[in-house]
Design brief:
The complex is a heterodimer of chains A (780) and B (287). By secondary structure, chain A is α+β, with helices and mostly antiparallel strands. Chain A has a seven-stranded mixed β-sheet. Chain A has a seven-stranded mixed β-sheet with strand order 27-29-26-30-28-31-32, sandwiched between helices. In chain A, strands 3-4-5-8-6-7 form a six-stranded mixed β-sheet. In chain A, strand 17 and strand 18 (477-478) form a beta hairpin. The longest helix of chain A has 21 residues, at 546-566. The model of chain A is unreliable at 1-8 (pLDDT under 50). Chain B is an alpha/beta fold. Chain B has a single domain, classed as 3-Layer(aba) Sandwich (Rossmann fold). In chain B, the strands form two sheets. A nine-stranded mixed β-sheet of chain B has the order 2-1-3-4-11-10-9-6-7, sandwiched between helices. In chain B, strands 5-8 form a two-stranded antiparallel sheet. Classes of the chains: A alpha+beta (780), B alpha/beta (287). Chains A and B meet through helix 8, helix 10, strand 16 and strand 17 of A and helix 1, strand 6, strand 7 and helix 6 of B.
Chain lengths: 780, 287
């Protein structure tokens, strides 16, 4: 949005700018909304008009901008709230301390400590300015964790782009090439995440041409704290409000309203992307945590979407009080910002702190020590509940009730549920399995991500026990989950993973979303953790279009079905709508990204993916079915259709228990979940990490299936495990006792080859180095 | 026995101070994280610290001042400008200084490492830690071979030729000497016993990328000054303090248990050796 456009609507007298809406007709109202960049629809504008008619005055520009922030899709979830309430919220679990209500979820870690989870999208900024957009995405999510009073300990980055070889001739002029976006986003994360000293230890990179017009950049952060240090985002009566951190500028103006419309590819939206400064963030984080531990902070909130406008009104509303704010006290990056710009700017690295008057000097001294700006910008008051007044150089420029501000409209948008799944299709069985397997290993969604992962410092803080790459040094393979040991005095660990398969969600959003939860649980179980909490980042298209709304509804239903059956709560997350590019006239695939956190009792017992020894037994746990809809195999064969994998939470729960029993008895040498590329790819990935070969026979698997379906189906609730050679019997006893379906596949062998048979028929015979070559070549 | 006092220097952007201080504390030393401002009197009276009260100075890893301009350059300039004399005194009395990753970059920028060549002005930068050959940030496990015959105070307790495993994480870690000086400087380093660690592959050979993660000349991972009381290295020993932090821990755990039974004690990793050896030799020297 160009700044200064509002002047044509305003009547200026000194600092106060009024906008005439009481007499405005519908067309004028729409014009005002567009012209001021409010992104409000006519109904919403009319509601504002009625409010001010009743007040017998015109709104100021600051008031209108503030309402637009508070009522944006991004801030108030007006299209999604009802559905979230129906499916996602309210899954009760004893470990929940404070969930859903604030920017991050808080859960019990041990008797004295809690861990904090936040997960968010930063899609639109990253599509316009990938480097800055991704970097500030991290900045924002870290603030969400810090403002609960927690020390951030891990970052998670699931990323989604169009294919890197997307033809330039197909690319509209306004759209940036996937390779440019991919490289920009990765270096943005690397430069910002590495600088603030938090390990980026998990994530994913997914390619689908549905993301060409609008890439998806999700960022998660996990923190840890003493339970006693938990702070709420609320201000109580008679406290001072202190703005700390970076200076306020014109960057990030209208970030939230910009996120609440479709992307048009206009460069003028660049001003809506904030600029990050990791070197302000780092001391800011230390200063806040120090002040909090010393009991100088009674409540705090980070300044994210909507800037001061949202932080002040939400903190006051939560605490049931009003406030007086003096905008001229806010430290600025440049001169000449108008009141509304200061009020809604989303400049980075800022927090609003509420504290007692008596302790404020001590509070300010801490920030001075860290060379971080801190100014008292106002105070909460007692005389009239919920009234916020803003003064700018002596003039009253804003006077609104928080009740009106936060009472945003809630919609039940029309939805249309379409299942694009078609029945099973005929594909000829391949003649050359070696070739198919190599091509799968080099497929963009399967190939090695080492070149990305190594650019992130995943070991800073010296607490990353299981790394994102696992195995023999120089031969590492992808891990299923990272494990962090958050406390010096305890071996207890947090397992962290994130996943979703958008190709499944495209064909069947309900089962696609359910599969995402299934996969996250598989990943956590594979390292020996117990799934403990989920966060969701729900990325969808324009909710005003019924088919997009249908996808959203179905995905939420799928997530809720799984999580409530498993008894694992959703604790935080966000909804990102309008992920479509107007120029390309298409929406992203439905992308409900799930962040899963699991607990491990002793990090030293965690299991990795890499095969450990020759002579051990390989099993596949779980049933393999003809579920190849959205599979990497069908993509490779250029086939559309097929059913996406289903899942049965009861079976999943039984299998997870059996695996953990076996791990507790130390029967398992390595374990890997079966996902993209199916069984054959899973086995290869394990062998690569251990630099050991295997000879397997798939005859024992579902006898109704053809060999290629057995090898490449992506059925849920499956793992490949390596069982120590001496432990075969004890392992099989557990499977029997837990009534878990599993098939013995074969053995690991000293010779570095991958051999796969179906009875006497040899399907695959490849040297391990050939397998590695294919897998490493994919993302080059 | 005397408790050694370790000063872990921090400014904005330093980010490995906590784990580095823990590494010393776990071995019984007293480690304090001290902001540069506390050493130069730019804080309130009770917060001020005097460098000479400490036995060891450590400049930990991170991105001091954002590493804008060049890694380590801003902190080096700030130290030189505000704390130059105190540091010089500290070093002259033989007290040890350790620079890890960004700290190594700072020591090189300050001209303290390699710290030889009498024909040039002292305090001039002689070598550089420059952009990795891959032109990327590299976070990966490395193997470094201990090459020092006894000069370096920090590694006297580590057998020469032993290989330690610890991760590196940097974008500017290529040890670089200008071509016209290269041969001469390498010879100096060799003759003075200043080469402490070199990158190797699992067989112990001086191998190229990825074993040498940044393309360092002569595979150099860490060097000391001619007096042996200043050590700088790019990999992070504090991240390899315990064996369970080793990227191959799960490959060793079962074998260890079979061999030694259930171990109740903490098992140390490759990085711990440096801290332990440093503390021992400093105590022995009787500071």
């Amino acid at each position: 949005m160009k700044t200064g456009r509002e002047s044509s609507f305003g009547n200026r007298s000194g600092k106060r700018v009024e906008v005439g809406i009481r007499d405005a007709h519908d067309e004028d109202l729409k014009r005002i909304s567009d012209g001021m960049g409010l992104a409000l629809n006519l109904e919403e504008m009319k509601r504002i008009k009625r409010y001010f008619v009743a007040k017998k005055r015109e709104p100021t520009d600051v008031e209108l901008q503030s309402i637009a922030q508070a009522w944006s899709e991004h801030c108030c979830y007006k299209s999604s709230k009802k559905i979230l309430q129906e499916f996602i919220f309210g899954i009760e679990a004893p470990q929940s301390i404070l969930v859903i209500k604030e920017d991050a979820g808080v859960l019990e870690f041990d008797k004295e400590h809690a861990y904090v989870v936040a997960f968010e999208s930063h899609n639109h900024p990253s599509a316009i300015e990938p480097y800055g957009g991704a970097a500030t995405g991290i900045g924002g999510i870290v603030r969400d964790v810090v403002c609960m009073g927690a020390q951030p300990i891990a970052l998670i980055d699931p990323l989604f782009f169009g294919h890197l070889d997307y033809g330039y001739e197909k690319l509209p002029e306004e759209v940036k090439h996937p390779r440019f976006l991919f490289e920009g986003v990765v270096s943005g994360i690397s430069d910002y995440g590495n600088r603030i000293g938090i390990p980026t230890c998990a994530g994913m990179v997914y390619f689908d041409d549905g993301y060409v017009g609008n890439c998806v950049v999700n960022v998660g952060c996990v923190g840890v704290m003493k339970k006693a240090h938990l702070r709420r985002s609320m201000a109580k009566q008679d406290e001072v409000l202190v703005l700390v951190g970076g200076k306020t500028g014109r960057d990030g103006i209208h970030g939230v309203t910009f996120a609440s419309v479709e992307l048009t590819g206009e460069e003028e939206f660049r001003s809506a992307v904030q600029l990050g400064d990791p070197i302000t963030k780092e001391p800011l984080m230390h200063a806040i945590l120090e002040a909090n531990e010393r009991g100088l902070i009674s409540g705090m909130k980070d300044l994210g979407g909507g800037g001061l406008s949202c932080a002040v009104s939400e903190m006051c509303h939560a605490g049931g009080c009003g406030a007086d704010i003096y905008l001229e006290r806010v430290k600025l990056k440049e001169k000449g910002l108008s009141a509304w710009e200061i009020w809604v700017s989303e400049s980075q690295e800022r927090f609003l702190i509420a504290g007692s008057r008596k302790k404020v000097d001590e509070l300010l001294a801490i920030f001075e020590k860290w060379d971080v700006d801190a100014v008292i910008i106002g105070q909460t008051q007692t005389f009239k509940k919920s009234l916020i007044r803003i003064f700018f150089e002596g003039e009253l420029v804003f006077e609104l009730d928080t009740d009106f501000l936060v009472a945003c409209p809630v919609y039940e948008r029309p939805k249309e549920i379409k299942i694009k799944e078609k029945g099973e299709v005929l594909v000829e069985e391949p003649k050359d399995y070696n070739e198919v397997l190599k091509m799968l290993l080099a497929a963009p969604n399967i190939a090695s991500r080492e070149c990305v992962i190594r650019q992130y410092d995943h070991e800073v803080r010296a607490s990353t026990v299981l790394k994102p790459m696992q195995g023999i040094i120089g031969k590492e393979t992808h891990g299923d989950a990272a494990v962090i040991k958050p406390l010096e005095e305890s071996y207890k660990g947090l397992a962290i993973t994130s996943d979703v398969n958008p190709s499944f969600c495209k064909l069947n959003p309900f089962w696609g979303a359910a599969s995402a939860v299934d996969e996250v649980c598989r990943n956590l179980t594979a390292v020996g953790a117990v799934p403990h909490s989920f966060a969701d980042c729900l990325n969808f298209g324009n909710p005003e279009k019924p088919d997009r709304m249908g996808e959203f509804y179905e995905c939420c239903r799928g997530l809720g079905y799984m999580a409530s059956s498993l008894g694992v709560p959703f604790v935080s997350g966000n909804v990102s709508f309008y992920n479509e590019s107007a120029v390309m006239n298409e929406s992203i695939p439905p992308t409900p990204t799930i962040l899963g956190i699991g607990l491990c009792e002793d990090v030293r017992e965690c299991i990795t993916v890499d095969i450990k020894e020759a002579g051990d037994f390989l099993y596949v746990i779980g049933e393999t079915k003809e579920e190849l809809g959205g599979s990497e195999y069908y993509k490779l064969r250029d086939v559309e259709g097929g059913f996406v994998p289903r899942t049965d939470p009861a079976v999943l729960i039984r299998s997870m228990k059996a695996l953990r029993d076996a791990m507790d008895l130390r029967l398992i040498a390595s374990c890997h979940d079966v996902s993209e590329g199916g069984l054959a790819v899973a086995v290869c990935e394990m062998l690569l990490g251990g630099d050991i070969g295997a000879s397997i026979d798939i005859r024992g698997m579902n006898p109704e299936l053809r060999s290629d379906y057995k090898l490449f189906s992506e059925s849920n609730s499956r793992w490949v495990v390596e069982v120590w050679k001496e432990e075969k019997r004890r392992f099989e006893d557990i499977l029997k006792r837990r009534e878990v379906y599993a098939t013995k596949l074969g053995e690991t062998v000293g010779e570095k080859r991958v051999c796969i048979y179906n009875r006497n028929k040899e399907l695959v015979d490849l040297a391990l180095e050939e397998v590695r070559g294919a897998w490493l070549s994919g993302l080059e | 026995m005397k408790t050694l006092k370790i000063c872990i220097l921090r400014i904005e952007g330093t980010n490995c101070e906590l784990e580095t201080s823990l590494a010393f504390k776990r071995l019984g030393a007293s480690a304090e994280i001290v902001h540069l401002k506390q050493l130069i009197g730019a804080v309130k009276e009770q917060e001020r610290r005097n460098l000479m009260d400490y036995d060891v100075l450590v400049i930990p890893g991170g991105f001091s001042s954002g590493d804008y301009v060049r890694a380590g350059a801003i902190l080096a300039a700030r130290i030189k400008g505000t704390l130059g004399e105190e540091i010089a005194d500290f070093i002259d009395t033989g007290k040890p200084v350790l620079g890890i990753c960004n700290g190594f970059q700072v020591l090189v920028e300050m001209g303290l490492l390699p710290g030889f060549v009498p024909d040039e002005k002292p305090g001039m930068q002689q070598v550089a830690l420059t952009t990795n050959d891959s032109a990327r940030f590299e976070c990966r496990p490395t193997l470094i071979k201990h090459e020092c015959k006894g000069k370096c105070m920090f590694t006297r307790g580590i057998e020469k030729g032993s290989i330690l495993k610890m991760p590196c994480a940097h974008a500017e870690g290529k040890f670089f000497i200008a071509e016209r000086k290269r041969e001469e400087y390498i010879q100096w380093l060799e003759e003075n016993d200043q080469i402490v660690f070199r990158y190797v592959d699992p067989e112990g050979n001086y191998a190229p990328y990825p074993w040498n993660p940044n393309g360092s000349i002569y595979n150099i991972a860490g060097i000391c000054n001619p007096e042996g009381n200043i050590l700088g290295l790019m990999p992070h020993p504090e991240r390899a303090f315990y064996a369970f932090l080793d990227s191959e821990w799960s490959r060793m755990a079962r074998g260890r248990r079979k061999e030694k039974g259930e171990e109740k004690e903490d098992i140390y990793g490759g990085g711990e050796k440096i801290f332990e050896s440093a503390l021992k030799s400093i105590l022995k020297k009787g500071l």
